Amino acid sequence: MIVYVCNSCGKGYFEPRGICKCGSDSFREEERETKRLHCVKLLVPPAGFPEQVEFCLSSAGDTRVLELGGSRE
Ligand SMILES: [Zn+2]
């Protein structure tokens, strides 16, 4: 997964940001390995989603993100 890392303070983001919390607007893209921490399966998904939806809290280094686990069969 690609993360956007601030060139100034090194903080990672999962979405492109205009400006980092530290005030810098200079980012680089880095490929990071993500680790899934917690996954929750929704048995009654919201409209428009496949039958079963899985949300996972993942981490890449010090950055955390909610990922859509999806139904992989
Ligand atoms: Zn920064």
Key attributes of the depicted protein:
73 residues, mainly beta, 2 domains, three-stranded antiparallel beta sheet, 0% helix, binds zinc ion
Give the assembly state of these chains.
single chain
Distance between the termini: 21 Å
Using the CA coordinates, give the radius of gyration: 15 Å
What ligand molecules are bound, each kind once? zinc ion
Shape: elongated
Q: How many strands, what sense, and barrel or not for the largest sheet?
A: 3 strands, antiparallel
What's the total helix number? Answer: 0
Low-confidence stretches: none
What is the total tally of β strands? 6
> Please, what is the average pLDDT?
83
Instruction: Provide the domain count.
Output: 2
